[in-house]
Amino acid sequence: MKENSSSRRRFLKSSGMATLGFMGLYQFASLPLQAAAQNRLAPSAGYGPLVNDPKGILNLPKGFSYKVISTRGDKMTDGFLVPGKADGMGTFAGPNGKTIIIRNHENSPDTFIEGPFGLKNELLPKGKASSFYDFGKGNLPGLGGTTTLVYDPNKGIVEKEFLSLAGTSRNCAGGVTPWNSWLTCEETTAKAGAYDYFEKDHGYVFEVPATDKVGLATPLPLKAMGRMNHEAVAVDPATSIVYLTEDRGDSLIYRFIPNEPGKLAKGGKLQALALREHKSWDTRNWETSKGPAFPVGQQHEVEWLDMDNVETAPDDDLRLVGFSKGAACFARGEGIWFGKNELYFACTNGGKAYTGQVFRYVPSPHEGKPDEKKQPGKLELFLEPNNKEILKYCDNLTIAPWGDVVMCEDDPHPFVVGVTPGGELYKLAENVGYKSELAGGVFSPTGETFFVNIQDPGITVAITGPWKKANHS
Q1: How far is CA 246 from CA 141, 186, 256, 424, in A?
Q2: Would you tell me how many other CB atoms lie within 10 Å of the CB of residue 238?
Q3: pLDDT in tens, 321-331
Q4: What residues contact residue 193 under an 8 Å CB cut-off, 6+ apart?
Q5: Residue of 22 and 370 predicted with greater confidence
Q6: Above 60 in pLDDT, residue 21?
Q7: Dihedral sign, Cα of residue 118, residue 185, residue 431, residue 147
Q8: Cα–Cα distances in Å, from 182 out to 45, 92, 210, 342, 419?
Q9: What is the pLDDT of residues 176-232, one digit of tens each?
Q10: How many angstroms separate the Cα of 6 from the Cα of each of 323, 412, 459?
Q11: 291's torsion region: left (phi>0), alpha (psi -120 to 50) or beta?
């Protein structure tokens, strides 16, 4: 996620190459035949061709429809305004068949037009600094945070909408927990004193309970999960282990083993993913990557390396230290989601064409325990089409109830793209109304509604249709 998609993507592409430094060129190895098979769409795997939307916003397959349920600037239940830059989302079963949605906002403190407090912060509650993580000296508080929506699927309306975390900055993505909360991540590593308004260090994960009660969550940073340019997280419901992505051109993949399952604030251990057979493997498959290409469709055994000094990371160098220890390097880790005994994560500009990769990780039967060395977890490059017509800059992703991975593209002309467990790709939605990324795609707990944000206009839509009639289901 970013404030200027194309310019920041070019910057991260070049800076990621430079940071690992002086790698030299090599002849790029041919990817396996599976990659060639991915270089085409399989419409029969999805719901058929997309139909032109008479309103000119979202093209969807026949039989599907959408409804705008939230718009930036509208007044919320708590009197604040719906913030802009809506990004990652999670859904939870609410009371009486309602759906609770928690939504991130990727705002910086000076983007008043996108914030919940008005163009001059005139709605900023005075004397409520304790309710904010960073009150910004009362002038420029963090305008990221989260909002919570209580949605009635039968009526197709939002019953309540309110600010649920305040004072954080650039909340990009996150992840749901099995204990009914949302982990929201700051995509910034700004320090206290930066720009003359930050009062605290940023770059943390925060937890927001899924509740229909209007009010702000306690803004407690989960510092043991590291200070970095966080993107998203996924929690294994069997172990409570949290897996984390990092939005950098030379990022790592992390896991957090909590001291007490379900109690993340009680601390734990942060580790980085490494490949057993090749330390410091550059999985990005860029033409400047040093060492062997990371092949599509092959599983590789994993080990996890302990990380130190994670809570403050004053030099913003966790990824660099981890890579020097042997951790694998990834191209802008973004969306991550846990499915049935496996998780998928997107690398937005990975691949030979810099247009995106999707990895699949299967945890060890003894994940996070000493015996995992005997049966290690395995990592696979699941998808690398290297073709913009197929997939470009995959960002947020989720897993549908029937097992498909559903991805939002981060591009001025983005699609929602589905991929079956067998690797067949299809288009699910097309943004034709706004030159803005799609973000936060997630299904309701019942699987009947797909919610997604169109970021720059600041709207959230609910999509319904014959989901269970996918041809491959």
Answers
A1: 24, 10, 13, 27
A2: 13
A3: 999 999 999 99
A4: none
A5: 370
A6: no
A7: negative
A8: 31, 9, 7, 20, 25
A9: 999 999 999 999 999 999 878 899 999 999 999 999 999 999 999 999 999 999 999
A10: 27, 9, 21
A11: left
Task: Read off the DSSP letter of residue 167.
Answer: S
pLDDT attached to residue 96: 96
Alpha carbons 374 and 248: distance in angstroms, whole number: 32
- 147 touches 83 (CB < 8 A): yes
Q: What Rg value do the Cα atoms of the chain yield, rounded?
A: 21
Taking Cα atoms as reference points, which of 147, 205, 54 lies closest to residue 453? 147
What dihedral angle (degrees, nearest 10) is formed by the CA atoms of 282, 287, 292, 294? 60
Q: What is the CATH architecture of 5-469?
A: 6 Propeller (2.120)
**What's the pLDDT tens digit per position in 116-139?**
999 999 999 987 899 999 999 988
Residue ranges per structural domain of the chain: 5-469
Residue positions counted in the chain: 473
68: its two tokens: 């705008």
